[in-house]
Write a structure and sequence with these properties.
By secondary structure, the protein is α/β, with parallel strands linked by helices. It has 2 domains: about 1-140, 2-keto-3-deoxy-galactonokinase, substrate binding domain (Nucleotidyltransferase, domain 5), CATH 3.30.420; about 145-335, 2-keto-3-deoxy-galactonokinase, C-terminal domain (Nucleotidyltransferase, domain 5). Helices cover about 40% and strands about 25% of the residues. The protein contains 10 helices and 17 strands. A 6-stranded mixed sheet has the order 4-3-2-6-10-9, sandwiched between helices. It has a 6-stranded mixed sheet with strand order 8-15-14-13-16-17. It is globular. The protein starts with a strand and ends with a helix.
């Protein structure tokens, strides 16, 4: 028999293009009580919706969310009816549950001008809050702004109006966020992770590297290959540098495993070097566990005397939850005023 929960819990959903993650979270300390994950990202669900051609899109996505809430409730043996649901990521995109407009720059890092839509009585009497992203003149992001709000809420970062700060969120599409006077003034997207996957699997270079990394870069030869990639990234255009992956293999400079680390260093080095053109008082690297060591080595190599702060991977994951709940409370309080 399932037990009922009080109202001090949230369901927090991070719904990306290729992944879905639903977590039950305590609102006081952001402790994760349980989670349900799948590969049913927004792109997959959108294709499934197109095939069935019966339900309207919002109803189809609603059914998907409620089914997964039910699955999580069964695993935890709890009653999740009437628990608020907060969804961020690609669910508010053109492929998602409902396309919402982006918030505009400058974006207040307290979240006051976030683009949000509330669906009342979604989960019993509890609402669903759908969070959109932010756009500039030529760029967009969804989710990183919520992470940034969460980091500040967790008091991991002190924002002073006089400081120019940079926040780097590595990933498939890395984000560099520039904060001035308490506002996101600009941001840039780098397709570092996606290009890495395309090159190693679908280009002529696929025969010069392994298809997957075999370790977390613990072997000295792997580290040296990665550092070599970082070094070469500063020599010429990335369009030329990429072909050196091929010549490394032709000239027996690296094994295929080492050459894959070389490619990683080449692309991450190219991304990180872009920041040498920027002036900043402090830079925060907000990185998940799988990329933490690579980006730390890249930043320490390219900015040996820079004011760089590396936030622990566990904090980044917690920041997403904290940001979602902060935005929910901000919106809820504004409606009650």
């Amino acid at each position: 028999m399932s037990q009922s929960l009080n109202n001090h819990f949230f369901l927090c959903c991070d719904w990306g293009t290729s992944s879905f993650r639903l977590r039950l979270v305590a609102s006081q300390d952001y402790e994760i009580k349980g989670e349900f994950t799948s590969s049913s990202g927004v792109a997959t669900v959108f294709k499934e919706w197109e095939k069935q051609n019966v339900q309207n899109r919002s109803d189809f996505y609603t059914a998907f969310l409620k089914h997964n809430i039910h699955e999580l409730a069964n695993v935890l043996a709890v009653n999740l009816d009437n628990t608020p649901l907060i969804v961020s990521g690609m669910a508010s995109s053109s492929l998602g549950m409902e396309e919402l407009p982006y918030a505009l720059l400058p974006f207040d890092i307290d979240g006051k001008n976030a683009s949000i839509k509330t669906f009342h009585n979604f989960n019993g009497i509890a609402p669903l809050m759908l969070i959109s992203g932010v756009k500039s003149i030529d760029d967009v992001m969804r989710g990183e702004e919520a992470q940034l709000i969460g980091l500040i809420k967790l008091n991991e970062i002190s924002i002073e109006e006089s400081l120019n700060l940079v926040f780097v969120f590595p990933g498939t599409h890395s984000k560099h966020i520039f904060v001035q006077n308490g506002f996101i003034a600009d941001f840039k997207t780098y397709m570092t992770g996606e290009l890495f996957n395309i090159v190693k699997k679908h280009s002529i270079l696929k025969d010069s590297v392994l298809s997957e990394l075999t370790s977390q870069m613990t072997d000295q030869s792997e580290i040296e290959a990665f550092l070599r990639g970082i070094e070469v990234s500063g020599r010429s255009s990335v369009l030329h540098n990429l072909f050196t992956v091929r010549t490394n293999q032709l000239f027996d400079k690296f094994s295929k495993n080492e050459n894959l680390y070389y490619l990683s260093g080449l692309l991450i080095g190219t991304e990180v070097r872009e920041l040498k053109q920027k002036e900043f008082d402090n830079l925060f690297v907000c990185c998940g566990k799988n990329l933490f060591e690579c980006y730390k080595l890249a930043f320490n190599t390219i900015f040996p005397k820079g004011k760089i702060t590396f936030l622990e991977p566990e904090m980044i994951d917690k920041a997403t939850i904290a940001g979602q709940i902060e935005l929910f409370n901000l919106k809820h309080n504004s409606l009650n005023e």
